[in-house]
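User: quick one
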Amino acid sequence: MAIPVLTHTDRGLYCPAGDFHIDPWRPVDRALITHGHADHARPGHGAYLATHTALPVMRHRLGDITADGISFGETRRIGDATVSFHPAGHVPGSAQIRVEVAGEVWVVSGDYKTDRDALSEPFEPVSCHSFITECTFGLPVFKWPDPSHVAEEINAWWRTNAADGRIAVLGAYSLGKAQRLLAAVDAEIGPILTHGAVEATNRVMRGQGIPLPDTIPVTPDTNPKDHPGALVLAPPSALGTPWMRRFGPVSTGFASGWMGLRGVRRRRAADRGFVMSDHADWDGLNSAIRETGASRVFVTHGYTAIFRRWLEEQGYDAHVLETEFEGETLDAGEEDA
Amino acid sequence: MKRFAALFTALDQTTKTTAKVTALAEYFTDAPKPDRLWTIALLSGRRPKRTVTTTALREWAAERAGIPLWLFEESYPIVGDLAETIALVLPPPSATSDRSLTDWIGDIRALATADEPARKAAILAAWDALPTSERFVFNKLITGGFRMGVSRKLMTRALAKATGVDEPALAHRLMGDWTPDSTTFDDLIHTPDPTANLSRPYPFYLAYQLDDGPDVLGDPADWAAEFKWDGIRGQLIRRGGAHHLWSRGEDLMTDRFPELAAALDFLPDGTVLDGEVLAWTDNAPLPFAALQKRIGRKTVPKKLLAEAPVILQAYDLLEDGGTDIRERPFAHRRARLEALLAGIPQNAPFRASPLLPFDTWDALAETRATARAEGAEGVMLKRRDAPYRDGRKKGDWWKWKLDPLVIDAVMIYAQSGHGRRANLFTDFTFAVWSGNDLVPFTKAYSGLTDAEFREITAWVRKNTLERFGPVRRVTPEHVFEIAFEGIQASTRHKSGIALRFPRMSRWRHDKPVQEANTLSDLQAMLETYG
Ligand SMILES: [Zn+2]
Ligand SMILES: [Zn+2]
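Assistant: Done. Structure below.
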């Protein structure tokens, strides 16, 4: 049997034909990066390749890196491999990476979602022989409600708080989820304030021409009385910290796929949970896999053992790939997703 | 059902008591009266009898969802709730329904006499007519275990707000053995009961934890001390020819402890005692585990009554000869308590909690050190000249607990948590050395910070030796200090030992695995404290 297109090494996924890694978790010479989240785009690589849309945030996060941009759908020859990047719908610029060697095609999904949002390039299925897919929410209990319905819930919550003279603080990852929410909420309800981490990503995205509503960065001098009826967007790690005290009595909300589980909503210290994820739900995962036409599937982050067994019963040659990706975590202080 | 599901969601979405009371009070004002009655019934633990087995529900749900049963079963522990797992896996409904809570409960109860195919058809039709939140509530009605984050007290407050009937009167009306079949909302809520006053308890006075020792309390002569017993706080009321036993949560637990009906024989009418219900044999308390077997049972089998008989270890007298004496100093109440109990036979289930003599705080510290051997958790300090106060007024009663016991143990198995912690390893099994073997002796779930849970999770992923379903055997490498409140012999555990309230108190990064404690260390602790 020929050498596989991609192999699993202790540094991450490796393509021997092209001598590069995809989303490696330890320093390598040449890294192809699906998107800018911290568990996929790590520091210390010799050279980076990512989509033009994903690069500005990566440069912002990783500092002075040697990086090259690529357009969606553009093919590039690296050694004996041909690579191209295709929309993953996870966050703006996020890609699946297609690798072809001697007619054999593998696709690495990175993180993806099949629901549309206003900012991310919509997910596109890519035909392949082998598909390496995330399965953060690979259980049949995860089914996302219609995103526009969730946006209405968030608006209703914000409106009620504004009417009661309370600031609404919404926790969301500073890269991706926060901007998706910004684009989804009804900015007519009141001013939108942002935590520094969120605003930093906003600034980068505005700089690259992604349209976002106006926001007001929270500073040490911010007085909530100057911003009645405001919505504050902050990373989950800021919820419940002294940073929040300046706002007086608040109502807190948290937007995540995990909020689909009542137990999680209740244990989470937020007042409200909104079911919104940047990952595919059960139906999304299954349809995405089906549409690739792949016969072999490798599963990473999430309920890998369970999801693998399910795929095997559906007739796939299914395997678990142990990676160091984190999926959508709920832990304070985590910015991986 | 929409109205009830909306109430459920409203209660679920807030942790604030005032918001819960408001939502409930609105419901008790505008929901149909039969639904209000059923809601009171559900919130006070009066559930309809189960008419469908959970096994059948799981099978039907998996079949309807188009997933294999094993996948349903794997999902269930991650969600942590059967009714919710079912509600989530089912496809969206294709019909709608305006039936009320009472209608649905009627349907569920009618299934008792239906055959299996009819039951299945009825359940599938219901699932197909209800959106996820109502489906969840419907499943809860079948499976029971309704927890809506509403105590009986809170419900009573909301009912009082909605009906204008005062809280204590309502609390009493809601007790007893009514069912939604035997009464109506109006009869239950609005019919006064002339005996209500007779059973009414006094608010419990609560003690605070003494963190830095008793030196701050001043002159030892101003204080009385007793052991702090590890039982259930109870107020025993003997009035009007009847007796009532109230828990601190103001639950009536008279029927659970039939032994205490001896109050009718041995205590004069117009007596109220405050004390601790303890399982008790041979003049000594049994471990809390014995009492625990009694707690969940509304009627007590004879065998259990013989194995774990209870007494009331009284430490205060609140009503004496029909007079409220709470304003009198502790020393006076205590003297009256002793006089009252002096005359009753040794084998009656009432006993005064002995006072501990001491001249200095050091002397009391020495007595406190013996608490475990006495089956106690530490000592209580009560100011001799203080009245019996309401609630949590700080300063007159203090609990001075023993420090927990600790042992250094090796982590050998890890299991991932539920819900929000499903991606983290949070449940661990610990072992101690027996020669060259590691003998598992306890599990522990709590005590680490989120950051530590993440760190150990990353480590477990890379150091798994074997998998058994959700459990992973890991390299024995990490030592944790396990703190616990008590230790008992156990035939159910391989180590022969069971711990009370074990938790991870410290991650001993400093300790090599060879230096963890041994089984003989544990056995010595059992000898001393068991
Ligand atoms: Zn990821
Ligand atoms: Zn991501």
